[in-house]
Design goal:
This protein is α/β, with parallel strands linked by helices. The protein is built from 8 helices and 7 strands.
Length: about 250
């Protein structure tokens, strides 16, 4: 028996990286998992890797019609929703003088607005005692150059978790944030200033971490599984840092 035997879960942005690793861990713990992704090829490959306990729903959390379609699919299964990992997010660099409307709207549209409506539209399906987990970032508490809009959107996510934990407590629904530091994902490589030298960027980031390396998606997935399960039954409104000590020392 896994920690989530018989439970139903949703993982947004579940095609790659932290999302896919988390979906795989939830499946391993006994859950049936719905994952979303914006690219069909990656989504199909992810579902195939997860096996018969997963369904993929193509869509973008910034598009409310896509969210409705996701939850219609979950509703059709008839078991409600026990775990929601609002993982989908996007990161881009831009210094203050470089920020455009498009940059702001994209990052806040997905990371803040998209996260909000991902959770709001799940409310009718969430079973009492469900667990909602938001994907945060150590950048929300830092002042790294060129990450201002991303950090602000992730700070909004952290604030949402506190408020929603308070608003949903009467139903026994717990809301927490998992807060990764630099994790070795395909998305991280895409942030490298020099696309020809992504390994240099990885080494630079890993060198800032007290444990001396980048995190692995599976390490964040373990924290997600903990927050999803009854092992964290007295934890809500919190932020669980998975950052190798980056923001702790």
């Amino acid at each position: 028996m896994g920690l989530l035997e018989g439970k139903t879960a949703v993982v947004t942005g579940g095609s790659t990286g932290i999302g896919l690793a988390s979906a795989a861990r939830l499946v391993a713990e006994g859950a049936y998992v719905f994952i979303t992704g914006r690219r069909k090829t990656e989504l199909d490959a992810a579902v195939q890797s997860l096996g018969s306990s997963a369904t993929g729903v193509l869509g973008d959390i910034a598009n409310l019609d896509d969210l409705d379609r996701l939850y219609d699919t979950v509703r059709d299964r008839g078991r409600g929703l026990d775990v929601l990992f609002a993982n989908a997010s996007i990161a881009e660099f831009a210094r203050l003088e470089e920020i455009t409307e498009e940059h702001f709207d994209t990052l806040f549209g997905i990371n803040a607005r998209g996260t909000l409506f991902t959770v709001q539209k799940a409310l009718p399906l969430l079973n009492d005692g469900a667990s909602v987990i938001l994907n945060g970032s150590t950048n929300a508490e830092a002042g790294d150059q060129a990450f201002g809009v991303y950090a602000a959107a992730k700070a909004a996510t952290r604030s949402f978790a506190r408020t929603w934990a308070n608003e949903l407590k009467e139903r026994g629904i717990r809301v927490n944030t998992v807060t990764p530091g630099p994790i070795d994902t395909p998305g991280l490589a895409g942030l490298a200033p020099d696309p020809e030298r992504p390994d240099d960027f990885r080494r630079q980031l890993g060198g800032r971490v007290p444990l001396g390396r980048l995190g692995r998606p599976e390490e964040v997935a373990a924290a997600v599984a903990f927050l999803a399960s009854e092992q964290s039954s007295f934890i809500t409104g919190s932020s669980l840092s998975v950052d190798g000590g980056l923001n702790q020392m």
